[in-house]
């Protein structure tokens, strides 16, 4: 096979419940992932050695200057894991075309790793009797990071543990989103540390997180208003503490008609739920005109995970 191209979506966290800090340095999480229609593409083709090239997708307004084009890129690690499992040399050129906002809390790097897993497995595995199936790729993804397994699967899913143990969630209909990106990044470890600090400052024991019944009911019935009311992120307070300007973005989105709003993951992207596709179009235009975000993106979900195109 000469080349394999895989399309992979961004994610938004509909619920991110953060539990106590564990002995291994991670937190117990309840993470309701939702894949949305902002996509990166990764093409894998044979080469003399492992190479990574990163570029912005056509018409995409993303800055890829800070994305590593070497072994620090999670896609490169994914290629090495697949090669090791199949007993081949990781001789592959990975071309990453990005449309998912970079360093925005939408798991773009994890998405690229998931796409590389799928692309390299298709490139190197035996098509007649493949050694790696989707479950194997999910398992390999968990070795890379907590968001990678979901990017392989897509749709809507509940993640527990570090977020990597997934169960698909029943979702009816399509939900319409607007994402407002910031002109700065937020360190995920720093946001978790700030969450711990704020809890300690208040003398609050970290609760054991559990899945929101209201959220799951809204997803199962396709109730956009119910979903908007049930969106929660335990890291949002910490993200706002580190970057208070995000509060103005959230306030603007609500004032302009969003029926739900939250910081996506560890931020700094803010996610807004709209009632209809037309409402989302209007909200996106209004947010863009308000000048509170570096960029504004429209998307819908759920969508499938990493898919060969």
From TrEMBL:
InterPro entries: GHMP_kinase_C_dom, GHMP_kinase_C_sf, GHMP_kinase_N_dom, IspE, Ribosomal_Su5_D2-typ_SF, Ribsml_uS5_D2-typ_fold_subgr
GO biological process: isopentenyl diphosphate biosynthetic process, methylerythritol 4-phosphate pathway; terpenoid biosynthetic process
Active site per the UniProt annotation: 11, 147
Residues that coordinate or bind ATP: 101-111
Pfam family, one: GHMP_kinases_N
EC main group: transferase
Family note: Belongs to the GHMP kinase family. IspE subfamily.
PANTHER family, sorted: 4-DIPHOSPHOCYTIDYL-2-C-METHYL-D-ERYTHRITOL KINASE, CHLOROPLASTIC
Protein name as catalogued: 4-diphosphocytidyl-2-C-methyl-D-erythritol kinase
Gene source species: Actinomadura hallensis
């Amino acid at each position: 096979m000469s080349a394999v191209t895989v399309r992979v979506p961004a994610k938004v966290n509909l619920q991110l419940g953060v539990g106590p800090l564990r002995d291994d340095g991670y937190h117990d999480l309840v993470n309701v992932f939702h894949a949305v229609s902002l996509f990166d593409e990764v093409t894998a083709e044979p080469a003399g050695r492992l190479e990574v090239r990163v570029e912005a997708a056509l018409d995409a307004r993303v800055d890829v200057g800070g994305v590593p084009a070497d072994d620090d890129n999670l896609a490169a690690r994914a290629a090495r894991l697949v090669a090791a499992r199949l007993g081949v040399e990781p001789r592959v050129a990975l071309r990453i075309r990005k449309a998912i906002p970079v360093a925005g809390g939408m798991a773009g790097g994890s998405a690229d790793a998931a796409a590389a897993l799928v692309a390299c497995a298709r490139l190197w595995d035996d098509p007649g009797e493949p050694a790696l199936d989707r479950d194997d790729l999910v398992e390999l993804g968990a070795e890379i990071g907590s968001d990678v397994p979901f990017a392989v699967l897509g749709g809507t899913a509940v993640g527990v543990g570090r977020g990597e143990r997934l169960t698909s969630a029943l979702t009816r209909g399509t939900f319409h989103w607007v994402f407002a990106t910031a002109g700065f990044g937020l360190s995920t470890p720093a946001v978790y540390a700030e969450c711990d600090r704020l809890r300690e400052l208040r003398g609050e024991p970290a609760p054991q997180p559990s899945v929101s019944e209201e959220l799951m009911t809204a997803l199962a019935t396709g109730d956009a208003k119910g979903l908007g009311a049930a969106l929660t992120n335990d890291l949002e307070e910490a993200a706002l503490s580190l970057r208070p300007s995000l509060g103005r973005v959230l306030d603007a989105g609500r004032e302009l008609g969003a029926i739900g709003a939250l910081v996506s993951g560890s931020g700094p992207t803010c996610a807004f739920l709209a009632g209809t596709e037309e409402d989302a179009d209007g909200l996106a235009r209004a947010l863009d005109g308000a000048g509170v975000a570096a960029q504004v993106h429209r998307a819908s979900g759920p969508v499938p995970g990493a898919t060969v195109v």
